[in-house]
Amino acid sequence: MIRKTSAMVEASILAAVAIVMALVSMYVPVIGTFVNFIWPLPIIICGMRNGIKWSIMSLIVAGIIIGMIISPIQAFFLMAIFGLLGLILGECMRRHLPPVRMLLYGSVGAVVALIINVALSFLVLGIDPIEMMFTSFQQSLGELENYYRSSGMAEADIRQAVDGYAELLRMMRIIMPGAFLLTAPVLALVNYWAAKKILTKLGERFEDFPPFTQLQVPGWILWPYGLSLGSVTYFYLNQPDSWLYNVSVNVQTVCSFIMVLQGIALLYWFVEKKQKPKWMAHVGLSLMFIIPIFSQIMVYVGAFDIIFDFRKIRPKRLR
Hints:
With 319 residues, the protein is an all-alpha fold. The protein is built from 13 helices and no strands. The mean pLDDT is 82.
């Protein structure tokens, strides 16, 4: 009875925390975006400490109150995407699963939640959240064009800048499925790390991830990457509006991201192996975000390590 009362009180407190976080994410610029990203934390902690029954109850209570205070759509969005992720990670942490398996389950849960959210938005709310987002971007593009014109910018320069942004939006629309796939593990990893930090302070212990410098991307990733390179070139020249072109671009995007991770792991391993200052690796990582060509170089570095096993850490059957 005491245990049940304790779980009920803790679930209520964590539901209140989730409500406050939703308010911050809705009304506080910049910080709110980050808080929205880690909104599953109270649900994860509740599930870890008290079990999935209490985490579900905490999620439902938080969702109802958020719907009353903010809007039902906001509550629906949080529960459909972040709530499911919180339930899955909370149960995985309660069972003390290995971190890699936990990340896999959390990523699958995040992808499923995103798909469910989009599907229910169509069927229940009658809205297309992706189309709404790009419509907003398109409107911003029009406002940007007016701003350039009012500031005295030449029409030729305005057209060049606006066309460049329009092409960027077009590519963003194409790679949206791949972006969903890449966002899922990042979302799961950030929430796992945050929950682990908090729960460790409360006396819990969890297995650590293998060192990042020992990351081993499976060699078969080179096949879809190579095929996607050829497919993107062919369909861009012949059928740029076909679904095959869109699929090829998304496969290339996902594979490139994975090989970039392999390249970054090799970079940090090399710095560590040569006993160089770690800031050198940090600079190399920063260059990827400053100079786009470095991202492509890191893809090739990752492919090099996959093929030649520069670190000599792969089992012979995988080389």
